[in-house]
């Protein structure tokens, strides 16, 4: 029990630290779980604890979200902000439901695939950080609806573990003319319906298989993810505005290479 508790705590912190930076929190969780011998029932732990990270965004952006929703009945700009996030969410909602079983039973069980995707995503992130077009959108609350839909389709690539939901949406945003700060912030906003939807659907599919010990692990990971994610959400925008995303690209490449080496050695 103690070992399981410590593993859940470690993985929860790892989830919170990596969910909103473009390094693939799910990829990190699955690789870490593989190497420490942690396997959750139906792989629900890795999905459900993401709600802790969602609540971190809600807590940090509570005032801004309240302002947008309270103005929506009278303010077309506020309604467009809400609509842009919902439109971006739709592709992942549809494809996620249709491909749920394949993602959980095949892709989640492929550590080598995850490592390769980490490396490939790192290379893409380094390239887009240098070659992104001149930004046309400086504010995440002013993303055009057509751009939001394109980002939504790009987000679907993150259903492959190791790609990164935040990485896909940030790269998509940068390539479509969002500033570095706006791309990260729109990724925050989009994470709320996307991850809440994944949490709800996965819980509905797997609730019967979750026993008391599984719920204890989830609770520990949930709280740890929330606390760690609050720190990241509060600090990330300032960092990427000043330094960009190169650090995260190199981090992905290093972690992916180390994972491939370890897997090749039989770990």
Automatic annotation (TrEMBL):
One Gene Ontology CC term in the entry: plasma membrane
EC number: 3.6.1.27
Topology in the lipid bilayer: Multi-pass membrane protein
InterPro entries: UppP
Pfam assignment, any one: BacA
Membrane-spanning residues: 48-69, 81-99, 111-128, 182-201, 213-233, 245-265
Catalysed reaction equations from the record: di-trans,octa-cis-undecaprenyl diphosphate + H2O = di-trans,octa-cis-undecaprenyl phosphate + phosphate + H(+)
UniProt subcellular location: Cell membrane
Keywords: Antibiotic resistance, Cell membrane, Cell shape, Cell wall biogenesis/degradation, Hydrolase, Membrane, Peptidoglycan synthesis, Transmembrane, Transmembrane helix
GO molecular function: undecaprenyl-diphosphatase activity
Main location, first listed in the record: membrane
Entry's Gene Ontology BP terms: cell wall organization; peptidoglycan biosynthetic process; regulation of cell shape; response to antibiotic
Family, as annotated: Belongs to the UppP family.
Protein task: Catalyzes the dephosphorylation of undecaprenyl diphosphate (UPP). Confers resistance to bacitracin.
Miscellaneous notes: Bacitracin is thought to be involved in the inhibition of peptidoglycan synthesis by sequestering undecaprenyl diphosphate, thereby reducing the pool of lipid carrier available.
Protein name: Undecaprenyl-diphosphatase
Species whose genome carries this gene: Szabonella alba
UniProt gene name: uppP
């Amino acid at each position: 029990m103690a070992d399981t508790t410590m593993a859940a705590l470690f993985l929860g912190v790892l989830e919170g630290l990596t969910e909103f930076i473009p390094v693939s929190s799910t990829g990190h969780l699955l690789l870490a779980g593989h190497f420490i011998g942690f396997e959750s029932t139906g792989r629900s732990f890795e999905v459900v604890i993401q709600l802790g990270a969602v609540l971190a965004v809600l807590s940090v952006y509570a005032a801004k979200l309240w302002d947008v929703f309270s103005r929506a009945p009278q303010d077309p700009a506020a309604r467009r902000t809400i609509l842009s996030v919902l439109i971006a969410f739709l592709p992942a909602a549809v494809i996620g439901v249709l491909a749920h079983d394949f993602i959980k039973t095949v892709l989640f069980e492929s550590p080598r695939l995850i490592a390769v995707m980490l490396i490939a995503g790192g290379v893409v992130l380094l390239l887009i950080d240098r070659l992104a077009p001149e930004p046309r959108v400086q504010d995440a609350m002013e993303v055009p609806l057509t751009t939001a839909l394109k980002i939504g389709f790009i987000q679907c690539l993150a259903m492959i573990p190791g790609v990164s939901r935040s990485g896909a949406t940030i790269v998509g945003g940068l390539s479509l003319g969002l500033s570095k700060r706006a791309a990260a912030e729109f990724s925050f906003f989009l994470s709320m319906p996307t991850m809440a939807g994944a949490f709800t659907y996965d819980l509905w599919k797997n609730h019967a298989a979750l026993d008391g010990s599984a719920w204890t692990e989830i609770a520990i990971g949930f709280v740890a993810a929330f606390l760690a994610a609050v720190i990241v959400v509060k600090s990330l925008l300032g960092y990427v505005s000043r330094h960009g995303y190169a650090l995260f690209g190199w981090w992905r490449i290093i972690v992916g290479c180390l994972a491939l080496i370890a897997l090749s050695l039989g770990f």
